[in-house]
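Please go through this chain and its backbone structure tokens and walk me through the local backbone shapes. Keep your notes short.
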Amino acid sequence: MKRDLGQMTTIVLGGICGVFALIAVLQSLGVGSGYRLLSDESSELDADLMKPMQQVAFNLPDFSQYIEISQRPLFNNDRKPRPIENKDASQVASDAPPPVPLDATLLGVLIDPDHQVAILRVNTSSAVIRVRQGMPLPDDLAGWTLQELSPRKAVFDGGPQQGSAELKLDMSKTPTGAPMPPPAAVPPPGQPGVAQQAQPQPMPADEAARQAEVQRIIEQRRAQMRAEAEKMNQQQGKQ
């Protein structure tokens, strides 16, 4: 075992000595001696390199040289221009939806510092809707917008085709209070009987619905104002 280790060490040392001997032979032959250090003095640059660059003005070619680009569009498969179709005014008018008349009735108006609401009934469907000022009507009457609102009327804008329309509140049908009971009918003298009172005429269904809707909106607004007042009182109490 020791003998093998000694032989291995001898071989390694012999190889190292051979490498150093090879380097010494190469140096004796002049290998690696053909270089020299540059001097510290700065050399002058070439005179041609010191000349300033010439400024060449660039001008766009004439536009006539780009006509082929417009004649052969890049994004068309056949590189041919598509013809421009000019629609007549009659065809454009036919494509537009027909104007819808404002077929509605003004049932009531609610105006306060925060809200301005008009209560309408659509005559075609008998649906009751509420619209704020500046908002368009729903469904089929979407082309109309509530433009102006006053205690007795509402003005709607239908665009350039339909113009403006005005709905007034019919005050003759608006109930002002509870009706007075009619006087009792007095029977003729000499005919016994009990005095019969005339029955009041029933209120139309649309008037009753309008009155109920207005009353509901008023109660809703009162409840909202009470809630806001209670909230403000609670905040002041915490402070």
Notes: Residues 175-181, 192-198 have pLDDT under 50 and may be disordered. The longest helix spans residues 205-238. The two ends are 99 Å apart (CA to CA).
